[in-house]
Amino acid sequence: MSGNTIGTLFRVTTWGESHGPAVGAVIDGCPPRLDLSAADIQKELDRRRPGGLPSASPRREEDRVEILSGVFEGKTTGTPISLLIRNRDADGSAYDGLRNLFRPGHGDFSYQAKYGIRDHRGGGRASGRETAGRVAAGAIARKIIAEAGITVSAWTRELGGIIARPLSLATAETSPLCCPNPEAEERMVKRLAEARTAGDTLGGIVEIVVRGCPPGLGEPVFSKMDADLAAALMGIGTVKGVEIGAGFAASRMTGSACNDPITPKGFRTNHAGGILAGITNGSEIVIRAACKPIPSIARPQETIDLQGRPAVVTIGGRHDASVIPRIIPVCEAMVAIVLADHLLRQRAIGR
Amino acid sequence: MSGNTIGTLFRVTTWGESHGPAVGAVIDGCPPRLDLSAADIQKELDRRRPGGLPSASPRREEDRVEILSGVFEGKTTGTPISLLIRNRDADGSAYDGLRNLFRPGHGDFSYQAKYGIRDHRGGGRASGRETAGRVAAGAIARKIIAEAGITVSAWTRELGGIIARPLSLATAETSPLCCPNPEAEERMVKRLAEARTAGDTLGGIVEIVVRGCPPGLGEPVFSKMDADLAAALMGIGTVKGVEIGAGFAASRMTGSACNDPITPKGFRTNHAGGILAGITNGSEIVIRAACKPIPSIARPQETIDLQGRPAVVTIGGRHDASVIPRIIPVCEAMVAIVLADHLLRQRAIGR
Amino acid sequence: MSGNTIGTLFRVTTWGESHGPAVGAVIDGCPPRLDLSAADIQKELDRRRPGGLPSASPRREEDRVEILSGVFEGKTTGTPISLLIRNRDADGSAYDGLRNLFRPGHGDFSYQAKYGIRDHRGGGRASGRETAGRVAAGAIARKIIAEAGITVSAWTRELGGIIARPLSLATAETSPLCCPNPEAEERMVKRLAEARTAGDTLGGIVEIVVRGCPPGLGEPVFSKMDADLAAALMGIGTVKGVEIGAGFAASRMTGSACNDPITPKGFRTNHAGGILAGITNGSEIVIRAACKPIPSIARPQETIDLQGRPAVVTIGGRHDASVIPRIIPVCEAMVAIVLADHLLRQRAIGR
Amino acid sequence: MSGNTIGTLFRVTTWGESHGPAVGAVIDGCPPRLDLSAADIQKELDRRRPGGLPSASPRREEDRVEILSGVFEGKTTGTPISLLIRNRDADGSAYDGLRNLFRPGHGDFSYQAKYGIRDHRGGGRASGRETAGRVAAGAIARKIIAEAGITVSAWTRELGGIIARPLSLATAETSPLCCPNPEAEERMVKRLAEARTAGDTLGGIVEIVVRGCPPGLGEPVFSKMDADLAAALMGIGTVKGVEIGAGFAASRMTGSACNDPITPKGFRTNHAGGILAGITNGSEIVIRAACKPIPSIARPQETIDLQGRPAVVTIGGRHDASVIPRIIPVCEAMVAIVLADHLLRQRAIGR
User: Which residues on chain B are in Cβ contact (under 8 Å) with C348?
Assistant: First the structure.
């Protein structure tokens, strides 16, 4: 992976800043003759759009995607697919007060250190808005893996410290917070309201499950399936931890408890989370991503200015109280992108 | 990252199987005119070698590294550095009984599914022995980053569920278990002995700390420092989870508690773990890797054979009771490799 | 290089089809704080636009470039620069008769064989129009190398078999055919008119010269400067041969004649064309690219249809009589892109 | 392509200096379950070894290849294949006089400029000896493409200005100079003897033909088959020009003469050299590489020393009078490597 491109054969490049003219993605290596329309992509984009959810930002974007290349008469041609999403509601002037200040928890300081310049409006490139390009690309990845019978689903495992014991996937799909447990969701909604009132924000944990994945995907030893999934998820701005299968809990198990016995019908347990030695084993892939609270809080914060002098920053503007649930389609997209790439790579070796 | 190569400018390719003639690494992109001797590399290799530690395997390897290219009269020339480590004590016959069986928790099943063939002796490519190449390459990476004032250290944060409250780094350096707390270490040694007696194994958590890292390293948005570190660590066979800074705990914090206030002297706290928006911020980089228990246990286990029939496998041979502490120089090596690559990449943009 | 992306650190991805909505490029890895405006890019695009030149197509495109990202208040930010050029005059219906036929000399047959589908309108992705994205990206590359004192110029060395003995670079710059010799140009214009009357087309040879290049650029052994330049030029649709310095003539020289003697003031001759062992030596880089005649001729041609049946194809539409001079800014752009990439790579090793 | 690695899926990394302990290659991405023995590779290495040919160097190397990994019980496993060739006859002291001098026509000057250091013995990394690793890797590539019915052959098209009108491939195969015309060969042998007597060297042109290549290989627009082949050949130290099909002659043809008419039985002519728009069209691929005379001549030459002072260099040691025919298996290897990579890439898109 290098800079703004991810993948070896299915390659996604995203571009764009929060308050520039547009964001977008170029997808190279998509197999030819796949049915693809703007509606296929729009459907996923709509899932990540700010909406009426309890945690949502009031910013309104239509997020209309335009396919500029790579599709001919409704089918992919094998050439690069360029996707464009205009930033229609990009009022950058709200950020004028932040031009010379570093917001704690954001990339302001580190971008300035790296590049000696930054587009301060809405976080520029480091904005969550960049993920629109990922979700758009992920919609194409999903179509590729769906042809091989693979699906990716994610839900809210935890929000603001409230753990949701999953009842069913169906419950999560119809839940505004993608929560698989209505009782937990009720408490989460209440906690979000409290945080918003307090001018504060909450974090949470997303669980992603991949079903139907054949054994054999993943390239040892530096592009293992778990390594690539970890990078793909840790590369989402909000994510501070990733675990596969039993994850951190595995570190407290004995070998005899942790090993998944193998039977003619498959693995008896799934502490491995579907991945052994970096290669899928045919079980469900189970991953969890820990998301920090959104750093944009409505409280004065201690910081410094561009000249290194002490300052206080107060962030106005429009912000969510939690990245959950909007981060969920982003997590799904990143997992789908990694899977699509490895599916193509495995085809190349003829299995 | 692709297959057996990691890095964009500082590129490491490892090769070799547990019971083949040798293992090794090719390092491409090492800057010229760096002092380098076999002894520099040997020193690191000796740290990961099976020894007399409480958790150690009785396998004896000299692990003598030979530099085959890229060094002239004691200095690197800028050309690829080829490192060779012969497998001297590679008795493959001990594995004959495993030729047609899949060991639970190992890559046997997934490698067979991927390639339709596998070198069953000692896990073949999926063996921990492959990491000798990583540690050797990491020794070179360490020298590169040391010139920029960057050091990487790791220690045992947890073993078999026993948490070590760190007293000092010096404590860990002289500890056989790399444990920063003598009292915890005593309990760990005892727990390891119990596990060994029970024919079982233990997992643990390694903490890696990077000191002296300048701000500005990391390439958004798909080769962020945290994403690359996560991939590098998750790509170690034993690792099932990675977290940066506050990690999973961040998901339970509020934004006002999690954000690190910025002062003229630096960040007041370090919940970010030294990385903001994927770019280093000048604070210490703090990462934790969760290691599962070694899957080679001395107990009969339920499995299947190559034909899919039920079977019982009992693993003989020589195995550690825990990957800790031998995994520690491997973790350090992977982190050093990622840092060296990003250091060179940052130089290219002239900062 | 992989698919539609070229470069290791300065990375250019182009996308778009001749008669789709737009063409464009994403440039990743551009150093920050470089002055950049749409006008900088437009200037280069205007050079490759169909104009009133003797060889020109009557197709009219405004070719207005829009910068969608990566530039903030007139300066690059280090993030990806997305460039968009709408296809305004894209009348695809003229190509309806070609939907089921393969035009000789074009990529129709090979694209169909590769992808099992193709956008037949104007050659789709294989159209010369794709090079607009390259020229736009090249404009940025030129700015990067200009800061290091490097310039790239190209001119017509030969057209339709007429050789131009160069008088001066200035002559070529003001010549409609980029021809450095007015007498030769007069004959070229006449030959082009004859070809056009005959419904035929002509090829030629472009010479590219790089001035001010420091010694030391190029990465042995598979990303040598000459190897990368050869790939960059051979990857232009029309190019069938590339030579550096003495080129093919070197194969008929003796070693004593071909070797360039070295003096305290530099190399006495330049048969090497500025590159030794794949690394620049400080002399001018001299490259020649042989361009075949444009395959779109106004004569009936023998071919087959999609079903493999014999057919006759007659190509209507708007076409140039020669790729020269429009290919010249494309050649320059590709050379500039390669140089910019190697300049950044060399910085990484600290020289 | 980056540095010392070539390929996207079939990836070859070479390492080693002329007078270091060894040279070698690591091949990553070789499909599993391919029969492979050291003898398969040795056969190709023996073809490039200095022998009793009229043009040959008296240096004697056994060039015994050792397979260190990636092969189990005679079959590839899908893991990296490490190949080692010891430098047995590496007498570096003969080069002591060259430590501070730059040999004209060699990489001495440019390597010094790039790295600020160089292994001066026998050209170090820039030595032709490095190509042993390429030929070894090419032997594996040949086996991969052979399974798809593809073969690569090369012969001497021209040597010292003497053109060989090809009689038959069989003639070239049994010829000491790989010359397809006995009468021309006789004159070449004489010309070589004259050059050797004069302390001089000769260049020549190699023609490479690929038979049995299916249509559809090559990735537009920056990894086209012709672009990748051009880079692979131009990246051989001796090559100064590359042309495909009609090549430079195409620049003097009209479109009506150059276009290859398409018939139900295939292309009527092959001016395209088997490649259209960068993708193979099913015809033979025909490429020519122009090789300069070997720069190591037995005459005093004008040069400078490390301090930039005028000097005279006289090269002793053991050298060929021409790179032909020893360069021929190297050309074949590079072409085979590119084809193997594209064959795997094409499989990935499911065609």
Answer: 9, 344-345, 347-348
